[in-house]
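Task: encode each sequence below as structure tokens.

Item 1
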Amino acid sequence: MRFQGIPSEEAVLEFIQKLPEGEWVFEDLKEKRRELLSAESARRLLAGLIDQVKGWKESFATLGRGTVFVFVHDREKPRAFKIYDPSSLGCSTSLTPPRWKLYLRELGEI
């Protein structure tokens, strides 16, 4: 599954309105937590994560405003997201896993 970066948090808020109904899976990979959500709960959770990303950009002086933390599988039908955190940044030979995943359950594991 290929993901594309979303360049601004405001654009992510537009995607939130497009989330289809269904059962959503939220995974916090750092805390090793997984839960099932309704579409409305997924919208609220994603909006909260976007607020957190905005906070990082405001509080970390070295973080560029154009830094992309949120990635979506399909811009037309947003059914899977990967959200990274500041610990993902740095000099590495490979991309670290995302901090959070949010996706429709019908997609299976992403």
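Item 2
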Amino acid sequence: MQSVNNKKAISKLATSGIKSNIKKFIVMIGAVILTTLLFASLFTVGGSVIGEAQISTMRQIGTTYHAGLKYMSLPEYEQVKDDPKIKDVSYCIMVGYLSNDELSKLTTEVYYSEELNAKNCFCYPEVGNLPVKENEIVTSDLVLEKLGVPAEVGTTFTVKLLIDGEEVSQEFVLSGYFTGDRVAMAQTALVSKEFQEKYAPVKMTTYAERTDNSMAGWMSVYLNFSNSFNIEKNVEALIDRTGLRSDVDYGKNFAYAGYEIDTSMAVICITMLITFFVAGYLIIYNIFDINIVSDMQEYGLLKTIGTTGKQLKKIVIKRANIISLIGIPIGLLLGVGVGACILPFVSGQMNTMTVGKGSVHINIWILIGAALFSYITVRISAGRPCRKAAKVSPIETLRYSEVSDKSGKKGKKLMIVILSLSLSLIIFNGVIGLISGFDVSEYVKGAVIADFSIQDASLDNMAAAYHETEGVDAEMLNKIEAQPGVNEIGNIYISSFGQEFSDESWKKVEDTFFTKDAVIDCVKNNYTYENRDFDACMEGFREEKTIMGSTYGMDEYALSKLTVVETLDGSDKIDWEKFNSGNYVLATRWSTDGHYFENIVEPGDKVQIRSHNPKYAETTEEPMESGQTTTYVSYDNAPVNEYEVYAIVDIPLAMRYRVDDFILLDYILPEGKYLEMEGEKGAMRTLVNVEDDKEEAFENWIKEYTNTEADSISYISKKSVVAEYKSLSDTIGIVGVVLSVILGLIGLMNFANTMVTSIIVRSREFAMLEAVGMTGGQQRHKLMKEGFTYFLWTLVVSVVISSIMNVTVIRFLADAFGMFVWRFTLMPLAVCLPFILAMIVIIPVIAYNRLSKRSVIDRLRVEG
């Protein structure tokens, strides 16, 4: 037998086979489109979310560079700038800070910057140019807004600059401006090289050799390597390679360092990705497999004229490539569209502030990744059926039918179709089961303490450089009290200076609290470092006799919102009259990772609180190793009052000052006693309860007030929190339902293609049965019975796996989100399964009716 070895002939055979049965290949193209749509939408949403989070982190940090070397001198910069393993390098030089009163809550750093550095640090002028003349400046629109300066190039204005403790007043001309980031740690203003050299000449000696605490003149050198892998190791290697001093301070860009992902959530994400890959594989494999069966006669004829098994493989792969070439681009376009529709809902739940938030971040790698996943799925799916076609002998192929297919038994096809149908039902049941547990009382209880919480806008912004803790002043309190329907007001005050202990009280804390295993682990994990072991840490604690924490002042209404753990008299409530006598304090307990709760002090203990009233503040000078002195404010001579711990309490997150530390101890005093000790000051937060029918009016007032008269104040209302969490619930539902619908279409297409191809392959069998007396109705009944078998297995698999998922994954997600109450449910299956049953019964009947339009004689003439 002579083999045919002609690429053009193989290509022609592949394309002619498609043209001769275009309907069948349209179904295969549809399968590839659906699979690519699934991957493309997943990659678009996932890639855009990651991109948005990365950009947000970069803008918060202030640069896109991989790393930065801090406090560098000019000779040190010259030492590293030409290193061959650095891809990009640029620098800026610190000058000082803008110190106008209007910018007290908007820290603004002043630099000279190279052009490349400005572009990569989000401070290159979007309008205008970088400063060239001594009196030119560039800054953000946020700074200009605070200064009351119009954002127009050429505007002249005067600002104050704090340069190493000396204030300089300077008239500048605005040469350009850019859009500022409210999430940034600090705003930026850029001055010319001429101005920098005059007021902050670049340092020529190393930071270790400095003779004072001057900040002006130090260079920050930013670096990009060839890739973002192992940034820290690359920086350390650069320092070793160039001979730079070993103690140079450097930072890496955490936007490139990966994200902290909970292990359980990571497992869920990987499981979902595998699920989608399996779903795509199931449909394409099944369609290729059953179409190989229907094409066996063609392959048999080709084998009889000399086509080898290898060449048959090439024909099948060629057809798979043609199908991919058509289906994948269409799937990519549709997938990007679906992803773009879903993305705003997902992005809206992210705690990011970026330009173009919620926009699709199209990246060529996203499209290539989705296309590659789809193509790999097609090739893997086509591989086994392709090998099946190549192995069968010419005689076998001519008589090949579904019944004689020993290598692909019906049980396998049954399993593939059932899994494909069940996937969508399982995901749909899980999504609906989760969002149906959305419970207003659960999340309002954790996120909202009163109808309204009013505070400075910076207070809960973890990215803010400054947190205002006295935002609600007496004038504003009077206006709140004057609003109709206000029936309860709770003020929360705070001072954050740490808690001091006497020798006696510290010994008790050390002997009881610091001996607990959880606390020891916390100290070892978070306070030790090189050359400082656990014993050294404890010695440090012992010398200072201080634990980080804040002292709160609260009135009766605010106090009622605390969670009481235990009291001096064994009650589960706090007696306000007794507590307000001025002899008592409340103390919080310690927790870490939400798992361990321990009392640091106990009810009945005597504790000391030092006054930090400004009238007791003293300016103190302290010598430094360099011989210079530094100044700071001291309260060492302020009075210290002793109180008895009345109760141990937990402060709800919505009332706390959200500061991070590993071991914290907070005290709470009655409002009157607190203000007597600390002096008159503004409240950190004010809680407001309003009559139900007046809530909308109050919200309209506070919204207008914070937009016009007090733009630095923000508020949280019960309605806004409900809307926020409802939005998240809706997002989960929308994304889940869209994915379920796509998977459902894949499952139905799999079933339809299986049944239709089975009927076509068995057309001669049905004709023979009809010829010997079986009616069309009996044959339809037989097909419906086969379809019902698929339904029964789908029912069993869906119910069993959904039940397992419900009590494991869905329960975990409900607990993790906090705003859902877990409830076991299979109701979504009960709603969807009748529809699946109808489709499973109807599809074979429709296919048979179309086949039976041909006469029995015609069907008998077809070789099986």
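Check on item 2: The mean pLDDT is 78. The radius of gyration is 36 Å.
End of task.
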